[in-house]
């Protein structure tokens, strides 16, 4: 168990965000955190990183209370927010500054990652474009080798080749002892990397389930015209939808369709995956 | 690698790996890339790649040497052909029969076409 949130309440002044939220996340997975705008994805990430404090309930991350911000906790966590802040330094200098705080920081990895992304270690970051700075921060975050890596919309602002490099990097750091959490609207950018989905909606977690489990329980396929489905969309290719997997069929998870199905029929989906937790 | 939307990723990886073996890009008793290496190459979660390896291991197409990695079985090609036959009978044929019924195509027509194709190949 990497993260456990228990009966969590949180609100911004008068806007209630979470009430009685429960969530358990384990190492060895790349979680995709999905939710509509304003559902509380970023808030959830900030709560687990100790950047926001809950009003009620418990949060346990790697055995620590995030809000206590213990050095031992912070040295095992790297958070890449959506809106990034970087000082007016060269990455080479900034990395030296951060290095003492991350015991497993790997300078050689940083250099390799930066080279892959074609970002210079010796250019002042204030002179870089948004995309360049984002890539620089991703490289730094990965090179810190923390057990927990939290990213809020990491592919925003990345060009097409960079998205592919990003996927390679994530595939290379997704190890058994590490937990990677990525909040995203760009599901297609990360489709084959995410192996568990967490959907947040209406102040709670609607589902938290591995992609294998989803395709065990549901089939994503082209439907006959009158075939009943849990959820379906019309397209030029015909009816594309999701049905309950009764015959043990193998199909490819369509994350967007699944997300829409969850929003449309939360109770049905909860009944299918209700007691599931991503624990293995 | 471009993945299709219509088949589970791990099965598409299985097919791709089988192709590599049949085309002898990966030869008998040679070590194949590690799960991590293939994950990076294909930009896929290592857990998904591992599922493909397990599937091929269960069918004795690849085998694991502890601490050394995965290797191509000696009779991998034979087993792949077996696998493809099973797949053809289990998946391609039912769809083929369904279309036959739907379009009202008789066995005689199929037989005729089959003979025609054979003759063309022979000449």
Please provide a brief summary of the model.
The complex is a heterodimer of chains A (280) and B (123). Chain A is α/β, with parallel strands linked by helices and 280 residues long.
Strand and helix layout:
The complex is a heterodimer of chains A (280) and B (123).
Chain A: E1 3-12, E2 15-25, E3 29-34, H1 41-48, E4 56-61, H2 71-74, E5 77-80, H3 91-98, H4 107-117, H5 130-143, E6 148-152, H6 160-173, E7 179-183, H7 187-190, E8 196-201, E9 204-210, H8 211-217, E10 218-223, E11 231-235, E12 238-244, H9 255-264, H10 266-273
Parallel strand pairs in A: 3-7, 3-8, 5-6, 6-7
Antiparallel strand pairs in A: 1-2, 1-4, 8-9, 10-12, 11-12
Helix pairs in contact in A: 4-5, 9-10
Chain B: H1 9-22, H2 35-42, H3 46-58, E1 62-65, E2 69-72, H4 76-103, H5 107-122
Antiparallel strand pairs in B: 1-2
Could you explain how this protein is built, in words?
By secondary structure, chain A is an alpha/beta fold. Helix content of chain A is 31%, strand content 28%. Chain A has a six-stranded mixed beta sheet, with helices on both faces. A three-stranded antiparallel beta sheet of chain A has the order 2-1-4, covered by helices on one side. In chain A, helix 4 packs antiparallel against helix 5 and helix 9 crosses helix 10. The radius of gyration of chain A is 20 Å and the shape is globular. Chain B has 123 residues and is mainly alpha-helical. In chain B, 64% of the residues lie in helices and 7% in strands. Chain B has five helices and two strands. In chain B, strands 1-2 form a two-stranded antiparallel sheet. In chain B, helix 1 packs across helix 3 (46-58) and helix 2 (35-42) packs across helix 3. The relative contact order of chain B is 0.11. The model of chain B has no long low-confidence stretch (mean pLDDT 93). Chain A binds chain B through residues 28-30, 164, 167-168, 171-172, 174-175, 192-195, 211-212, 215, 221-222, 250-252, 254, and chain B through 3-9, 11-12, 36, 39-40, 42-48, 51.
């Amino acid at each position: 168990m990497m993260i456990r949130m228990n009966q969590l309440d949180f609100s911004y002044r008068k806007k209630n965000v979470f009430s009685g939220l429960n969530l358990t996340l384990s190492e060895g997975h790349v979680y995709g955190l999905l939710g509509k705008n304003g559902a509380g994805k970023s808030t959830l990430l900030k709560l687990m990183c100790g950047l926001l404090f809950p009003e009620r309930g418990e949060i346990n991350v790697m055995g620590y209370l995030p809000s206590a911000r213990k050095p031992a906790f912070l040295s095992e966590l790297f958070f890449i927010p959506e809106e990034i802040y970087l000082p007016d330094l060269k990455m080479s200098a900034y990395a030296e500054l951060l290095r003492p705080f991350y015991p497993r920081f790997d300078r050689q990895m940083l250099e390799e990652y930066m080279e892959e992304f074609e970002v210079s270690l010796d250019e002042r970051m204030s002179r870089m474009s948004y995309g360049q700075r984002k890539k620089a921060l991703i490289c730094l975050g990965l090179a810190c080798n923390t057990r927990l890596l939290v990213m809020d919309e990491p592919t925003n602002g990345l060009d097409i080749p960079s998205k592919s490099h990003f996927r390679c990097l994530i595939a290379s750091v997704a190890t058994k002892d590490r937990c990677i959490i990525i909040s995203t609207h760009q599901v297609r950018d990360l489709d084959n990397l995410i192996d568990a989905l967490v959907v947040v909606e209406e102040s709670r977690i609607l589902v938290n389930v591995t992609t294998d489990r989803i395709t065990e329980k549901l089939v994503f396929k082209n439907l006959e015209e009158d075939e009943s489905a849990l959820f379906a969309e019309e397209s030029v290719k015909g009816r594309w939808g999701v049905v309950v997997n009764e015959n043990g069929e193998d199909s490819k998870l369509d994350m967007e369709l699944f997300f829409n199905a969850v929003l449309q029929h939360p109770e049905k989906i909860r009944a299918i995956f209700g007691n599931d937790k991503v624990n293995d | 690698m471009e993945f299709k939307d219509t088949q589970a990723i791990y099965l598409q990886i299985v097919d791709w790996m089988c192709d590599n073996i049949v085309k002898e890009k990966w030869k008998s008793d040679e070590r194949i890339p590690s799960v991590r290496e293939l994950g990076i190459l294909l930009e896929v979660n290592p857990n998904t790649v591992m599922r493909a390896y397990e599937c091929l291991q269960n069918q004795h197409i690849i085998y694991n040497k502890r601490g050394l990695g995965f290797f191509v079985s000696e009779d991998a090609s034979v087993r792949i052909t077996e696998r493809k036959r099973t797949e053809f009978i289990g998946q391609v044929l039912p769809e083929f029969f369904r279309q036959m019924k739907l379009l009202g195509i008789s066995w005689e027509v199929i037989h005729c076409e089959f003979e025609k194709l054979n003759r063309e190949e022979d000449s």
